[in-house]
């Protein structure tokens, strides 16, 4: 069996990559789910008998498990790695988690690479942006391109730099989603959804984020006390509508903190 490539995890990311690249029997794979292992075989991927068996003889391993299983995957496979094999940790975890995983892989003779998947894997598939960091990132870029990935970029020489970009960016991306949910729940309860959304459309800005971030922080430092008071009233509004102002209370805290400390870029 040709096991140059190993997949640990066959959820959305792993299965999407495998099918888009048509790796078939060039890859072996493992997943904790029996159902997903069956799907793996349907895609032509060789099913390993265990995580350790899956990575034996593989020169490239893609770890695409759930965030809470990223360290467990490393620990299950490390002792079976071929010396010099490249372990690409594509999981969305904190830099500290990746540093811990890197220690295990490197102690076992492997080469650990911090990989951040910077967009949903569908519909981009193999063109999804991959940010790489770590001492072996340049080597990993070549290997990943060789197996079909087309949008790969090295962003740092230290493990944790790619994941820091992903995690900190998620503060904004996922935070906006959470704020949207809080706003829409209140707008629906108040019966003013159309007006709220139209008002947001009218105030939408195309300003680059570097300028927008500097402007936002300056406004907070200058007017944070007044804005915190306004947001306390917004929180009361949400409570009266039966919506828990979780995100809004956080805004009160950040506005008041900025006014006290004079937050700037």
Features:
265 residues; 2 domains; Rossmann fold; single chain; elongated; alpha/beta; N-(1-d-carboxylethyl)-l-norvaline Dehydrogenase, domain 2; 8 strands; eight-stranded mixed beta sheet; 13% strand
Broad shape:
elongated
Distance linking N and C termini: 54 Å
Strand adjacency order, main sheet: 3-2-1-4-5-6-7-8
Q: Give the helix/strand class.
A: alpha/beta
Number of strands: 8
Residues in helices, as a percent range: 55-70%
Characterize the largest beta sheet: strand count, sense, and whether it forms a barrel: 8 strands, mixed
Poorly predicted sequence stretches spanning 5 or more consecutive residues: none
Number of domains: 2
The level 1 CATH classification of the largest domain is: Alpha Beta
Assembly form of the protein: single chain
Query: What is the residue-mean pLDDT, rounded to a whole number?
Result: 93
Q: Please work out how many helical segments DSSP would assign.
A: 11
CATH topology of the largest domain: Rossmann fold
H/E element order = EHEHEHEHEHEHEHEHHHH
Q: Report the sheet-strand fraction.
A: 5-15%
CATH architecture of the largest domain: 3-Layer(aba) Sandwich
What is the alpha-carbon Rg in Å?
A: 23 Å
């Amino acid at each position: 069996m040709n096991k140059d490539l190993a997949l640990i995890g066959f959820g959305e990311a792993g299965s999407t990559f495998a099918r888009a690249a048509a790796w078939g029997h060039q890859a072996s794979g493992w997943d904790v789910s029996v159902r997903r292992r069956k799907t793996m075989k349907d895609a032509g991927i060789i099913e390993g008998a265990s995580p350790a068996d899956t990575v034996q003889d593989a020169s490239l391993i893609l770890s695409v498990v759930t965030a809470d299983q990223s360290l467990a995957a490393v620990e299950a496979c490390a002792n079976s790695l071929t010396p010099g094999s490249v372990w690409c940790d594509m999981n969305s975890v904190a830099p500290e988690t990746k540093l811990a995983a890197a220690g295990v892989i490197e102690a076992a003779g492997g080469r650990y690479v911090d990989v951040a998947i910077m967009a949903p894997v569908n519909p981009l598939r193999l063109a999804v942006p991959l940010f790489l960091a770590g001492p072996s990132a340049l080597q990993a870029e070549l290997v990943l391109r060789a197996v079909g990935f087309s949008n790969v970029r090295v962003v740092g020489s230290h493990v944790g730099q790619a994941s820091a970009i992903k995690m900190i960016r998620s503060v904004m991306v996922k935070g906006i989603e959470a704020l949207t949910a809080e706003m829409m729940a209140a707008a629906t309860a108040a019966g003013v959804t159309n007006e709220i959304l139209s008002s947001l459309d009218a105030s939408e800005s195309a300003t680059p984020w570097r300028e927008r971030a500097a402007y936002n922080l300056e406004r907070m430092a200058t007017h944070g006390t007044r804005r915190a008071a306004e947001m306390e009233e917004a929180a009361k509004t949400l409570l009266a509508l039966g919506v828990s102002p979780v995100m809004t209370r956080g805004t009160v805290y950040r506005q008041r903190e900025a006014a006290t400390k004079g937050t700037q870029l």
